[in-house]
Amino acid sequence: MEQTIPANFERAADILRSVSTSTITTILLKKGLRNVWMRQARPIRSGQARLVGRAFTLRFVPAREDLATPESWSSPTSTRAAIEEMPEGCIAVVDAMGVSDAGIFGDILCARMRKRGVAALIADGVVRDVAGVLATGLPIWCRGAAAPPSVAGLTFVDWQRPIGCGGVAVFPDDLIVADDDGAVVIPSALIADVVELAPEQERMEAWIMQEVDRGVPLPGLYPMNVETKARYEATRPPAHE
Question: 130 in a domain, yes or no?
Answer without folding.
Answer: yes
